Amino acid sequence: MIFESSSSTGAGLISALASLTGSEIENGILVFPETFGKGYMKFYDLGRLMRVMINQVVLNEDITLKRTGAQQGKNEITFSFRNIFPDQNNRQLPSVQVSSSDIDIEVVALANTRINTILIIVHTDLLKDLFNQKNENTLLQNIISGKQPYLYDEIISAEIQQVAAQIIAAGVPEPMDSFYIKLKAQEMIYLFFVELLKRRQVAGYSLNAADVKMMYLIRDKLIEDLGTNPNLSELTRLANMSESKMNRLFKQIFGNSIYAYYQLARMIEAAYLIKKEKLSVSEAGYRLGFTNLSHFTRIFEKHIGLKPKKYAAASISRSDNL
């Protein structure tokens, strides 16, 4: 199924989905009928400067969501926190995508796979108030100014996952619920910028929808088999562009070179295998293509912050205390 919308994510999107599924929106909540799937979408209108939508859904069939770039709402910025809590059926990397409203975006939601996302839509005036007006960071200014199309994709940190869990589990009574959601949404935006602004300030090249779609195909190909090193020649043929252009666009969107992104994804998967699947350190390393466990340990510690055995022990300790 293909669902297209030129509306920025928010009230327009949830209303369109209500019409599509034949459901009613009550108190900002759309509950999906069994014929369509299960789960809910909840919308918070937090005033002129911010809106939030929480999606916790499992669909009965694949759906492709297409957002057509539009000039209206150009002063609005959408922070799309996706795959916040990976599970066995959804192993996509948890990430946050931030894009200008004039770029076409396409997202495929697979059937029988939990969709857990938080969308935060803010007006540029809010960011201008939150940040020092004299801040000359290239990335920040590109987002706030809206002078050229942009898209940044950042892997979600553990701190962002914790705040997201607090939002989804929030049992705050009215009229304090909107106040609580607004505070937590701003915290998620802050934590996103903490990670984004670690990137080197490189020139922002003009993006178009075809380039964006191709870079996500390259990213998906990269993480398709984390036990096999990326083949740049194969990826270049897939992208149908020069290797230098492919690397430049990939790094602009994802903040890492292709190989560095692959290594980070590898270690996130290793952490999942050790913590959730209870694999031994050696089993996790071998599954991800490492024949030298000392090398695996060094790479794991670099990206996760702990040696894999200490990470495994810490995970067991946390489980015992739950």
From TrEMBL:
InterPro entries: Homeodomain-like_sf, HTH_AraC, HTH_AraC-typ_CS, PchR_regulatory_protein, Tscrpt_reg_AraC-type_HTH. Pfam families: HTH_18. The keyword Transcription applies. Residues 212-314 form the HTH araC/xylS-type domain. Gene3D superfamilies: Homeodomain-like. Keywords: DNA-binding, Transcription, Transcription regulation. This is AraC family transcriptional regulator.
